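User: I've been trying to design a sequence by hand for this structure and keep getting stuck. Would you show me what you'd pick, starting by listing the structure so we're on the same page?

Assistant: Good idea, let's start from the same input. This is the structure you sent:
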């Protein structure tokens, strides 16, 4: 192992049990010996040099390229040691802090997410084969944080609970129109239509997701009530009773937060309610992981609440409720990682070994960031008027319970009574 890398790791790893074997076969131990052991083998001098100068990007790249193997502890163990040593006199005392600081300073240049660039960014990730996502997602293909009401829930149960939790916060009534911004594979929109007898328009920039969602709507006989469009939300002109957006705001980019909420304000009716579900930071604003930005979510950005709130306030919208979901995504990613590992050979048949190693690192590093770094989920409920929603949160739990009973087959009718203005055989309503 070269002397400079040894010095870097000596300063970085104060706690934990990390063994590193270099290209020439020598092994050095770092940390205080506590915790589960982790053993990395850096196989080439090229990888050794790269890791020395930019570990947060070079470690995953070297792993993807087969120039680094993790012999013990897995990717999760490597990231646990890295994150648990941040701020403890290790990484903050090295030049690596300066590299990450520069990435933060230039984050706006990396997030000029115009409509055309947003479409290209989405294609890089969400237009991967649907067969890949079926290997590790739940049956409904929910590609966002699940909601573990009980710690022993299965992934499918927790994803169903997530849909109930979101639906309850929307305070839906039959006959209303709902806009789903970033509608994914259509599961949430289809659920809302069936549970509440509402009309849903979903928009996505992913051709793959749009095709799957549309096919699902037809297969379930809901094509007259649930309609998915391959369109940027900025192109919409209709108005809706409700707006929901799950796992899409991370792709908006800090430069476009004001545009997102200004547009949402114009799309929402005067008595409307919006629910935004997004990954966020519990700490201060910081740069997107270099690995995630380069290989997984180009143009993506995880905001701090201090960056989101000013944009909402300036749009004239009213924040009515904020809930922070902690560790729910860590457990979701744990399930995804286990499912991917069980189906790794199938994923390799779709793509290749390098892709599988990239995806393994992505899932494990993301889980680590939710367990040991500052990533959380924001659920922000928004309205146009201060008196649109009840004064207490009791209605959320009541609606969730009613939906759970319905999902179990004990309730045939929607849990919310029909709006007096509801009409049968509806189509989506045009702008007022």
């Amino acid at each position: 192992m070269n002397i400079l890398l040894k010095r870097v790791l000596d300063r970085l790893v104060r706690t934990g049990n990390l063994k590193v074997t270099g290209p020439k076969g020598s092994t050095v131990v770092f940390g205080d010996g506590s915790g589960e052991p982790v053993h990395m083998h850096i196989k080439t001098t090229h990888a050794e040099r790269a890791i020395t100068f930019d570990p947060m990007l070079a470690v995953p790249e070297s792993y993807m390229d087969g120039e680094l193997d993790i012999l013990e502890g897995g990717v999760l163990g490597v990231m646990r040691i890295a994150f648990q040593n941040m701020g403890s006199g290790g990484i903050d005392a090295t030049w690596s802090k300066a590299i990450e600081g520069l990435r933060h300073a230039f984050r706006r240049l990396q997030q000029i997410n115009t409509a055309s660039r947003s479409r290209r960014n989405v294609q890089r990730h969400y237009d991967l084969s649907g067969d890949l996502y079926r290997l590790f997602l739940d049956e409904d293909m929910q590609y966002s944080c699940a909601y573990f009401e009980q710690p022993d829930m299965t992934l499918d149960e927790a994803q169903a609970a997530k849909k109930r939790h979101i639906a309850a916060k929307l305070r839906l009534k039959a006959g209303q129109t709902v806009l789903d911004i970033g509608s994914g594979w259509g599961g949430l929109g289809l659920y809302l239509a069936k549970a509440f007898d509402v009309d849903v328009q979903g928009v996505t920039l992913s051709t793959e997701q749009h095709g799957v969602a549309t096919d699902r709507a037809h297969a379930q006989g809901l094509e007259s009530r649930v309609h998915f469009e391959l369109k940027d939300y900025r192109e919409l002109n209709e108005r809706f009773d409700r707006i929901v957006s799950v796992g899409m705001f991370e792709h908006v980019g800090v430069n476009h937060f004001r545009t997102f909420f200004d547009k949402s304000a114009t799309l929402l009716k005067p008595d409307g309610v919006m629910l935004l579900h997004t990954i966020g930071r519990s700490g201060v604003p910081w740069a997107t992981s270099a690995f995630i930005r380069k290989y997984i979510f180009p143009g993506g950005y995880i905001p701090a609440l201090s960056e989101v709130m000013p944009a909402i306030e300036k749009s004239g919208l009213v924040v009515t409720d904020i809930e922070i979901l902690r560790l729910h995504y860590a457990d979701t990613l744990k399930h995804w990682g286990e499912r991917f590992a069980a189906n790794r050979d199938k994923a390799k048949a779709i793509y290749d070994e390098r892709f599988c190693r990239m995806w393994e690192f992505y899932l494990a590093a993301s889980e680590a960031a939710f367990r040991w770094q500052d990533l959380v989920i924001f659920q922000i409920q928004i309205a146009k008027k201060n008196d649109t929603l009840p004064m207490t949160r009791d209605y959320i739990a009541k609606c969730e319970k009613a939906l759970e009973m319905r999902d179990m087959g004990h309730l045939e009718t929607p849990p919310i009574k029909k709006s007096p203005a509801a009409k049968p055989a509806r189509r989506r309503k045009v702008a007022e």
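That's my pick for every position. To get oriented when you compare it with your attempt: The chain is about 45% helix and 15% strand. The longest helix spans residues 353-372.
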